[in-house]
Amino acid sequence: MSALLTVRGLVKRHGERLLFDIGELTLDAASAYVLTGANGVGKSTLLRALAGLEPVQAGAVEFDGKPVSLHPYPQALRRAIVYVHQHPVMFSTSVAQNIGYGLVARGEPRARVAAVVEAAMDWAGVAYLRETDPARLSGGEKQRVALARARVLQPRLLLLDEPTANLDGAAREQVIALIPTLMEQGTTVVMACHDRDLIGLPGVRRLKLRDGHLEYRSHKGEHGEAQ
Ligand SMILES: Nc1ncnc2c1ncn2[C@@H]1O[C@H](COP(=O)(O)OP(=O)(O)OP(=O)(O)O)[C@@H](O)[C@H]1O
């Protein structure tokens, strides 16, 4: 499998506190990962750093086999890497306009945006909400709208920050059901989570952040330090 993203020497400090010092992080193309670790260990920070939303110290970085920098964060990575917040922020327009916003911003023709948004709403099971003010959405609906909004951008790497946190019952199951279909479209997905059902999804590899280091774990529970 070919590497989509490799980052060497990924270091994050908050003042005197060293949050993580990761020798090497490699994410393969068209692969899915869960990123686990105790509360406060730095999972969100790591995802946000990869998305260019958090200043971080990085050595050599390669995306799609080409050297890139995380500072300044290149436009090509901004297009290719999408981060979905645990509590997604929505514009006070309609659900449909929120989902299409990124495509409109990229200058896509209106007719194409409308068709893609329609398909994404069907995929996420939110078509009945198309004209709804996002402020009225439940937590589960909001997360599914956020996933649809990310999916239409066809990212190479999708970073999901605790997509099922604060959800239970059917709302949680609806979000979990969407994840394998995201993986099918060739997107690499990394999910920060504590959710056992996400961790146990078929084909999902596990990354564990512990004591500032990243461990790669197989499904059988074997583990080893990252290089
Ligand atoms: N600007 C900041 N200054 C100092 N410390 C910060 C700052 N931002 C985050 N932190 C700290 O960094 C640590 C990592 O936070 P982060 O949200 O990445 O953890 P997490 O593993 O995602 O946790 P959780 O599972 O609870 O969501 C926390 O201890 C947090 O308080």
Structure description:
The C terminus is likely disordered. The chain has one domain: P-loop containing nucleotide triphosphate hydrolases (Rossmann fold, 3-Layer(aba) Sandwich), CATH 3.40.50. The protein has 227 residues and is of the alpha/beta class. The protein has 7 helices and 11 strands. 32% of the residues lie in helices and 28% in strands. A hairpin with a 5-residue loop joins β10 and β11. The strands form 2 sheets. It has a 7-stranded mixed beta sheet, sandwiched between helices. Strands 2-1-4-5 form a 4-stranded antiparallel beta sheet, with no helix packed on it. The radius of gyration is 17 Å and the shape is globular. α5 packs parallel to α6. The site of adenosine-5'-triphosphate (ATP) has 11 residues, from α1.
